[in-house]
Amino acid sequence: MLIHLDPTNRVPVYQQLINQVKRHIATGTLKPGDRLPAVRELALLVLVNPNTIQKAYTDLADAGLIHSRKGQGVFVSELRSTLSKDERTRRSVEATDQYITDLLMLGLGLDEVQGLVAARARRFEREEKR
Amino acid sequence: MLIHLDPTNRVPVYQQLINQVKRHIATGTLKPGDRLPAVRELALLVLVNPNTIQKAYTDLADAGLIHSRKGQGVFVSELRSTLSKDERTRRSVEATDQYITDLLMLGLGLDEVQGLVAARARRFEREEKR
Amino acid sequence: MLIHLDPTNRVPVYQQLINQVKRHIATGTLKPGDRLPAVRELALLVLVNPNTIQKAYTDLADAGLIHSRKGQGVFVSELRSTLSKDERTRRSVEATDQYITDLLMLGLGLDEVQGLVAARARRFEREEKR
Amino acid sequence: MLIHLDPTNRVPVYQQLINQVKRHIATGTLKPGDRLPAVRELALLVLVNPNTIQKAYTDLADAGLIHSRKGQGVFVSELRSTLSKDERTRRSVEATDQYITDLLMLGLGLDEVQGLVAARARRFEREEKR
DNA sequence: GTGGTCTAGACCACG
DNA sequence: GTGGTCTAGACCACA
Question: What is this structure's pTM?
Fold first, then answer.
């Protein structure tokens, strides 16, 4: 499992870790039941304070994506959406609008945005098949 | 020039202001030489702490998008690209991957994601034409 | 707003705080829009480390019960259930079974449990009316 | 004697075991003088680390509910109330208030809470009669 | 002055 | 050896 953290990045280290774990789960690189690296182990590996890892793991656990067993480690949970249908569409639309806005700000056009999504989606597809 | 700031939103008020000014410049609502509202004036208008407006204006000036002339006000500068092409690409790809991941975690499929982007993009298109 | 924390209690301090804030919201002692004490202020008041308060506030924010605005403070959010109907009933039933089991373990009978719930519910009702 | 341990559950395995032994004693499935399974035997049976079983047995012995005779095994002791009446009441009330708060936060009304308790209590009643 | 992030390091709970 | 809680204290982002 590949994790890369950049402490100079504006986005908080613990958030970077959360994002990457989510992505690994979303693409299937991490499957339910898989064990994640121990807090201290990963802290040494990526050279950040164990508390920072702990924070990310706790947040992921709160989100129901992973669960921890004291003395045993941290594991990927069975994913089960707990959100109502309305809430899911609400969040999807909000995320999409925010995403499009961000890319327009970067100077892309609407066509380019859709092209980019299509291109990256194909890459996700390939990752899933591995 | 329309400015709408939402203090409830998780993105910082000063950042919202920066984004909107950038967007106005990008879409041509604001052209080089145009005068922006004075700090205090805008603060009263949108009911925000003048420090917040000042912060946004300073950042925009640092980015070379606007400049102030003592005693005269704040003006839109001649355009020059603020980010390198590589950097723009890097950020676009990162944002896209994160966006796709988030929607996969919400339970959508890759097809649905692309459909949603297309649908919302059409809505953005209509807004631009107004 | 009354907060009482007991560091000798087995349940973590930050969890005690979460529970009490939840109760205040549930009973209406805290209403949407109300401001909570500042992190440092409350830390001094109840004599715990500010980080402990921060942790509780963060968790409550993640649960959507409160939201924070940097530089302004922490506020009670509009409550909006984000859970699906199925998930809500599932959790209700699970909580109820766990609760009944706990009280049976304490030596109460099923009649006594129902009587106790009725009695405390009446007290909640009175708190709400204030 | 039926023991079911769920390592996934957030409540510690040794605590689950304690709870179930207590419950068996409370409901009369286990009577004073009855012999409990040996540590190693039970560990194999429920697929749990023997240390965990040992920890539960030690705690139960400390609480005066069981005692071990060297070379003979572990036995249920004569019953004596382990908590003072006041302490039991205090804990019952606290658990009840927390329970009600949790269900209010889930969006249920006080009436619904009482109805739910009644419904689940009836189910507990049926289980006891078996 | 407000909340947010991170580090260093201690101690506890659990298996 | 595993994760969980808490403290002390620094520094940053924001209004």
Answer: 0.85
